Amino acid sequence: MNLVWLRKDLRISDNPALAAAMASGTTLALFISSPAQWQEHNLAPIQADFIEQNLQSVVNELAQLGVATLHHQVDLFTDIPSFLLDFCQQHQIQQIFANTEPELNEVRRDRAVLEAGLPLQLFEGHSIMAPGTVFTQAGTMFKVFTPFRKQWLEKVAQQWASPLAKPIAIGPAVEAIKIELACPKRDSSAWLAGEDEAQQRLSAFVQHKVADYKTYRDMPALDQTSGLSGYLAVGALSAKQCLHQVLQHYPDALNEQESGAFCWISELAWRDFYRHLLIAHPKLSMGYNFVPKAANIQWSQNDDDFAAWCEGRTGYPLVDAAMRQLNETGWMHNRLRMVVASFLTKHLLIDWRRGEQYFSQQLIDADLASNNGGWQWAASTGCDAQPYFRIFNPIRQSERFDPDGTFIRKYCTELINLTAKNIHMPKANERPIRYVKPLVEHSFARQRALDAFAVLGKG
């Protein structure tokens, strides 16, 4: 009996571990939920619910392919090796098949399973190019994205292979169990679960939106992004499948650097970049700054400011609308993630780790590699981050990317009657009584941030 150990790879097609297990003979699937570990990792209740829904979809599909799934709760990763020893003995498991995960605790978990003598075989399924395959001439991990992308594009062009097809049934259909995860959950039904839904969304995006992606991707009032990040985060869709679809429709996209398709492929490359970094620099999983000098930044401990940011009460309309979008929907537009992260770290001088944790606790698409990479980029503490003296002006960002205030009005309803000119930062005599005053004035905040972050510029 083979065992396929399901993780955040909740799909049937392009699942290397599942394909190898089913090709080797009779297969049993197992999902191990770890609520205490998840809580330690700040798993968002909305993502927990999305995992449950997508896992149920996988269980149902596997049952049709003749593969039964079992679900067991093992609260902490450290308890998994002993559980698996008993499980494999009980079910006469000859081989365990699983896909790797890049986060440090997950890497340590797998190492402990192997050290316990269990027959675990690991496959690479979370990146387009496997970590360790894209490197400098010195054989080290890149510290700048652009040369990484150049090398990554060359490797993709040379080594690209189509995603794995859905395995064929290995026996008659079996009964599917009902999945219920014993952890805090929040309704995720605004995102329909399942691999089929993910594939349909991907196809619709590639056919109808990717050509204009570069033009419209920064406009939060428009539905012009892929909306696939949640599916990628839980593994209902693979990054390889995304790249495959784009190249099917735009065969020359890897070379057409001004195209919308290339722009979106670059986002997939950024995703790989941050995952490769997590493997090359395990301390990133532990909350360390990538830039050591960033340890000298004096962060503010103002809990009232942090609470105002979390709740969308900063007095900066675009920042507040973005945070309310996050709290109401469990998702935030990517341009706005940069704006609110810059505001927290530069305008309020609050440690990026607090923002990263809050995002993890709220986002349906939370992913440690991308979340950490994005926050450290915004805070100027990360690998190939924006320079510390680049400080987003949230008013200018608002005027540029939400020019008529459509997005702001959707989430800051108290500003609904303001004109497009005034909505980006209402004047005192036009500010509705129900809308808060700004926490901090921009020019003052900018200078304060330059002073605080100057430690990054000193040798």
Automatic annotation (TrEMBL):
Gene3D superfamilies: 1.25.40.80, DNA Cyclobutane Dipyrimidine Photolyase, subunit A, domain 3 (1.10.579.10), HUPs (3.40.50.620)
Stated family: Belongs to the DNA photolyase class-1 family. Belongs to the DNA photolyase family.
Cofactor: (6R)-5,10-methylene-5,6,7,8-tetrahydrofolate; FAD
Xref: NCBIfam families: PRK10674.1
Annotated EC: 4.1.99.3
One Gene Ontology molecular-function label: deoxyribodipyrimidine photo-lyase activity
Lineage, top ranks: Bacteria, Pseudomonadati, Pseudomonadota, Gammaproteobacteria, Alteromonadales
InterPro entries reported in the protein's UniProt record: Crypto/Photolyase_FAD-like_sf, Crypto/Photolyase_N_sf, Cryptochr/Photolyase_FAD-bd, Cryptochrome/DNA_photolyase_1, DNA_photolyase_1_CS_C, DNA_photolyase_N, Rossmann-like_a/b/a_fold
Stated name of the protein: Deoxyribodipyrimidine photo-lyase
Xref: PANTHER family: CRYPTOCHROME (PTHR11455), CRYPTOCHROME CIRCADIAN CLOCK 5 ISOFORM X1 (PTHR11455:SF9)
Keywords, sorted A to Z: Chromophore, FAD, Flavoprotein, Lyase
